[in-house]
Amino acid sequence: MTNLFYRGYTIERLDEVYIAKPTHDDGQPFELFSTQIRRVLEAINALWLTASQLSGCEFDTDHLISPRWARDWLKSATDSIDLDQAYRRGAC
To answer: For the whole model, what pTM was predicted?
Structure first.
């Protein structure tokens, strides 16, 4: 599969999994992954929406308009987000 570029992320398919990584390199590894391309694209959109609510102000992550997995990630950032696992536990 040819890489897909979407909203600052490169998405590639590896076996049955779609992996999205930021196109910019800020030295921090990060990726979103799922077996469903739709879920990856929606997650990227959710991150954009979340980021638009954070710019230049104090925030309470519990009151952001975003999926729970994104709010949880803001509280405790990790190198990757397994979107399928997040959806199985109802964090969408």
So the answer is: 0.84
